[in-house]
Amino acid sequence: MATDHAPPAPSPPADEAPLRVLLPQVLPALAVGVGAALLFLGISALGEKFQHVLWNDLPDALDIGGHSSLWTISVLTAAGIAVGLVIWKVPGHAGPDPAAMGLGGTPLAPGIVPGLLLATTLTLASGVSLGPENPTIAANIALAFWLGRKAAPTVPGAFWVSLASAATIGALFGTPVAAALVISEALVGRPGRGSLWDRLFAPLVAAGAGSMTTQLLAEPSFDMDLPPLTDPGWGDLLAALAIASVAALFGLAACYLFPSVHAAFRRLRHPMLMLPVGGLALGLLGALGGPLTLFKGLDEVEELTASIGGWSSGELAKLAVVKLAALLVAASCGFRGGRIFPAVFVGAAFGMLAQALVPEVHPAVAVSSGVLGVLLATTRQGWISLFVAAVIAGSPATLALLCLASLPAWLVVTGRPQLELDEQGNALH
User: Fold this and answer.
1) Of 228, 180, 186, 237, which Cα lies nearest the Cα of 207?
2) Is the pLDDT of residue 78 over 50?
């Protein structure tokens, strides 16, 4: 999930007044921002409705437990069959291997988008441990690039890619700040004319439009209502440093295993074998870990953190291990989805495990540091990891602690395998 997947918008030529260059970018940026958010919200709403049918209406009609082990295994295996059929039969095959897809990338052909969105909706609804981010960004990039090139053929394609990437990230996180951080990270080492803010202008307009659309039509929130940290001390700093670094090591375990697990599924060769086997494995993991280890994980994090102090260390360890294993299987066998949201659950469970073992650690420090470490390991997105961890903490006082904790955690993960592969199936570093 390297940051170079989101190319920045072309910078204005040095001999043109920035105002004359930037003002015409506002309208297309607004249009892409609103459109990207609507697509994200539509897929999310459709997935939630189908989820309710699968996990509430059908079990009630059959008079069985919605989260019984048998039902969990059956639904996830059926999801593997359904997504396998989409990949096998639908034109475009739901896009390339998701194991090699980061946050963005080369625009897909528009004919791939319907199959990709259908596979993503089935994935979200059925309880697979993946989020909507990667396929939604890919779909929005494909549509914005295709429509933008038709409407304005002289405008560089990278302009539309940057708008779609920023808009979708803004919609996903409910704030343009996340998009600004990702794009700023992408600009490092890239030549370009104009100031940083000139180059960020149009993507930030798109991200702002996307985030406002989400805010108006939904209620996105990463705030888990943790007890606020008001007066951090040296003990809090030490805890943050230790938890983030150990959590990064824990997340790296999945990164090291990823190429081997992916290769094992690839040996099955056909999506109607890879996906059902993967679904069965996910069903067994879900039966072992329970309902909290299903789905993308954001709502489940809120439920998990609502009972701080009520979980034993053994229960939390099981939740963290099962969710990480489910993320690894889901990302390897071909389900369409992103890795950020389930990694947040893994990090939160790991942080709560640390707090259960050492009750003196403040819950906000424990949870946010665990999220920071696991996200750094699995995404290699420094700013996004720091942003999500800080928002989850819900306390400005933790920001300084997390900034410092990110440094040793980054030393742990930098140069190590990522939870993303190249086209040959080798781990990115």
Assistant:
1) 180
2) yes
